[in-house]
Amino acid sequence: MTSGETHRTIEATFRIERARLIGGLARLVRSIDRAEELAQDALVAALAEWPKTGVPANPGAWLMAVAKRRAIDAIRHDKMRERKHEEIARELDGSYDDTADALEAMDDDLGDELLGLIFTACHPMLSRDARAALTLRVVGGLTTDEIARAFLSAEATIAQRIVRAKKAIANAGLAFEVPRGAGRAARLSSVLEVIYLIFNEGYAATAGDDLVRPGLCLEAQRLGRMLAGLIPERAPDKAEVLGLLALMEIQASRLAARSGPDGAFIPLAEQDRARWDHLLISRGVDALARAEALNGREGRNSGPYALQAALAACHARARRAADTDWPRIAALYDQLRVVMPSPVVDLNRAIAHSMAFGPEAGLHLLDEIPDVDALRHYAPLPAARGDFLFRAGRLAEARSEFEAAAGLTRNAREKAFLLARADACDGAS
Amino acid sequence: MRVMVFAMATENSDKGMEPTPEMMEAFQAMDRFTEELVTAGVMVAGAGLKPTAEGKRIVSEGTTRSVIDGPFAEAREIVAGFSIWEVKDMDEAIAWAKRAPAVMPGRNVMEIRPFYEAADLADFITPEELATPREGDRGKLGVA
Q1: Which residues of chain A are within 8 Å of residue B137 when distances are taken between CB atoms?
Q2: In a mutagenesis test of the A interface, which of B1, B4, B140 is the best target, namely the one with the most A β-carbons within 10 Å?
Q3: Domain count, chain A
Q4: How many beta carbons lie within 10 A of that of residue A419, not counting itself?
Q5: How is chain B split into domains, by residue range?
Q6: Is A309 part of a structural domain of the chain?
Q7: Are A423 and A406 within 8 A, CB to CB?
């Protein structure tokens, strides 16, 4: 093996281990920045050692041991022991072995270190954008530039966002632990929200020229798979984690079919279903089945992600658009609006009812949406109304709705699609 | 990117599995490795394959077809199993493959092959052809 190859393998191995390393170190030094520095030092040590000894059987453990030793030495020598270090410093006054045992016990108390990092990066005290950027950076390992391009922001903006987020976490003295007990549900909800936000940005890019950014979806799927692997089966929130994973896998299965050769937007009803990734569908359906089994066992109703996954699975099961079980979809939306009340859900429910029971049913439900005002800048609302009107034969009204919708979307592909629908209202009999 | 990983082994492994202590331990090691791949979000799918004694080869030359029963003793390396991984690049795939336990006695080989993507097929099939709706569920994992 040439030295060059070894370096690349070592760096690739490091990238695999990096997030967990940072999670474990951050517990010690209570700062992501410092944890990243220590992790980097461990990489340098690996680049020096491993070409001679080979990559160790457990590279993560090797890197963690080296980095922790360095961290402990630094804390010991730190003359101005800050208050948050005192507790650790007291533990460290013993021998190194005692220290290692104390650290392991601490880790057991705090839960899995990677999971702890995920929870901390997604802490609700940060804005959603900050959580997303920080999670992609320290958990996903994306560079600031990659994140900036993914969210169509300037690199400087993202860099600033991450710096501020790290600072806020350090100032709050967060322990990088896995939350338990009372606050846990809200904390997990925050994590799921961030992962799904990342996914959605890749699936239905809110702005820009490209309809989809598959790399972001993949990143979110990977985070979802990681989360599902880290949360134990018996945890009460496992079902919703599996629900989110199922939802993302099934939606991602349609990525190749969502845009045409020129990048044009293709709606679900017109997609070539042969281009759906059936491997992802089967993974998603499998995760959904596990979620439903867990809920069934505990006598729980499905949560919002599991319900949305069930909706996606309905579409996935239909060989052709005409085979779609719309009454079942309508019934699922009836359930979803109870656990996840929102005007967007109500809108989608109206669409489902229109498909199951006719355009008049859809128009009726649109008129009944509470808080419809929240949707006044939301292109899918006039788009849906336009569709119902078109199918009800009210073409002039349909045209103005499609035009209104085209005016509201920031996505170039969607706009073109909506304008085409508006044009189709002329001369259609 | 997706890669397919072939776990290949010498003819020793092709004799089938016996629940010896060594084999059970090897299984557990493989199981742990698979768990790591799952938790890392890398593992997409995988399966073990029965020995070539239960396999068949179909050889086509022009219009002739012949069926050859296993075992395929002349093969130096035999596909014992496959999996599909989602990785950032080949470097990551290699890093993972190196962590796989050496399951069978003797020489174990893992072959990693990236999937073809649409761009690779551009000379053979136009984007329009690729996008033309076709009937039926091809159950495909890749792009063609």
Answers
A1: 273-274, 278, 319
A2: B140
A3: 3
A4: 15
A5: 2-131
A6: no
A7: no
Q: Which residues of B touch A16 (CB under 8 A)?
A: 40, 92, 95-96
CB contact under 8 A, A226 and B40: yes
Mutation for A interface: B43, B92, B96, B129, most A CBs within 10 A: B92
Residue A201 lies in a domain: yes
Is residue A327 over pLDDT 60? yes
Distances (CA, A) of A46 to A7, A60, A64, B19, B143: 9, 11, 11, 38, 38
| pTM listed for this prediction | 0.83
Q: Does B84 touch chain A (CB under 8 A)?
A: yes
> ipTM of this model?
0.75
The closest alpha carbon to A407, from A397, A415, A399, belongs to A415
Question: Does residue A53 lie in a domain region?
Answer: yes
pLDDT tens, residue by residue, A269-323: 889 998 899 899 999 999 999 999 999 998 989 999 999 999 999 999 998 999 9
CA distance B2 to A216: 15
Note whether A408 and A424 are same-domain residues.
yes
Minimum-distance CB partner of A218 among B35, B86, B130:
B86
- Boundary-marking domain end, from A110, A128, A150: A110
In 3D space, the residue among A105, A116, A111 whose CA is nearest the CA of residue A138 turns out to be: A116
**Domain-ending residue, one of A231, A265, A287:** A231
Nearest chain B alpha carbon to A277:
B141
A-chain residue closest to B139, CA distance: A278
Residues of A in contact with B110 (CB under 8 A): none
B2-131 CATH fold: Alpha-Beta Plaits (3.30.70)
Task: Please check whether residues A125 and A98 belong to one and the same domain.
Answer: no
- Contact between B143 and B117 under an 8 Å Cβ cutoff? The reply is yes
Residues A92 and A131 in one domain: no
> Residues A68, A151: one domain?
no
Q: Which of residues 27-56 of A touch B (CB under 8 A)?
A: 55
The per-residue pLDDT for range B124-134, each reduced to its tens digit, is 777 677 666 55
Token output for A11: 């760096």
Q: A64 and A88 share a domain?
A: yes
Residues on chain A touching B84 (C-beta within 8 angstroms): 279
Q: Cβ–Cβ of A278/B39 closer than 8 Å?
A: no
- Chain A with chain B: Cβ pairs closer than 8 A: 82
Q: Which amino acid is at A386?
A: G
Q: Which helix (H) or strand (E) holds A77?
A: helix A59-77
DSSP state of A78: -
Q: Which domain holds residue A165?
A: 111-231
